[in-house]
């Protein structure tokens, strides 16, 4: 092995999540891209072909990385794919109005390599549609690969290659100095954050600040606000405590 394999090295705490991939060849090529850079955790959310990990085209494109392909986890939802993660980065060629903070692959890789407590996911969209807003909004950051503004959409496996390369360079100690993400406590688990949003939404409906029949963009805006804060577990607990107290005072609990 030509990479440090300590228990908290980035190689063991970074997973690659491909959402709704159509072409098995891209899944195989993504497995190859990962293995060449020393990564092995591949998760497929609802691939178009249920047999994606054994599909002939996937196997052909994986070449010597069939082991990564065949140990890929296939799941139905993004929640399952992100289980156990406390950091997720959405990859998108398009910037969105309600997105978490935008950063670039090199800076992200250096941050992930530098924060040993992060169990992170890189989330890639489908060839045809990219990532839906609901998934982008649940990620901590949005990663945009700088590209030709007139044609900025890379092939999926090539986007995976680029991120895997940057992650490798950062993990093996060639990283640029960048400012840390800024966690002081434990980064909140993504499932905890989703639970907090649901709780907060309930309280906002209860105090009639949020009208469920006309929600406008309140929740996406709040999610964007909180994603800029990079929430820690204790902060999530405080926000849930506030929501709980509102419900209690209103006698709705
Ligand atoms: N037609 C899609 C693009 C799909 S490319 C769209 O309009 O969004 C497949 C995936 O590769 C994307 O969902 C994204 O995860 C990744 N990708 C491609 N180009 C990228 C770029 N310039 N920056 C970040 N991610 C990119």
Q: How would you describe this protein?
A:
The protein is built from 11 helices and 7 strands. The protein has 2 domains: 163 residues, SPOUT methyltransferase, trefoil knot domain (Alpha/beta knot, 3-Layer(aba) Sandwich), CATH 3.40.1280.10; 60 residues, Helicase, Ruva Protein, domain 3 (Orthogonal Bundle). By secondary structure, the protein is an alpha/beta fold. Helix 2 links the parallel strand 1 and strand 2. A 7-stranded parallel β-sheet has the order 3-2-1-6-4-7-5. The protein binds S-adenosyl-L-homocysteine. The site of S-adenosyl-L-homocysteine has 19 residues, from helix 8.
Main features:
single chain, 253 residues, Alpha/beta knot, Helicase, Ruva Protein, domain 3, globular
The fourth-level CATH homologous superfamily of the largest domain is SPOUT methyltransferase, trefoil knot domain
The largest pleated sheet is described as:
7 strands, parallel
Structural class: alpha/beta
Number of strands: 7
CATH class of the largest domain: Alpha Beta
Q: Judging from the principal axes of the Cα atoms, what is the shape?
A: globular
Strand sequence of the main sheet, in spatial order?
3-2-1-6-4-7-5
Query: Architecture of the largest domain, CATH level 2?
Result: 3-Layer(aba) Sandwich
Radius of gyration: 19 Å
Low-confidence parts, pLDDT < 50 over ≥5 residues?
A: none
Helicity range of the residues?
40-55%
Bound molecules: S-adenosyl-L-homocysteine
How many alpha or pi helices? 11
Q: Summarize the helix and strand pattern as letters.
A: HEHEHHEHEEHEHEHHHH
Average pLDDT metric:
93
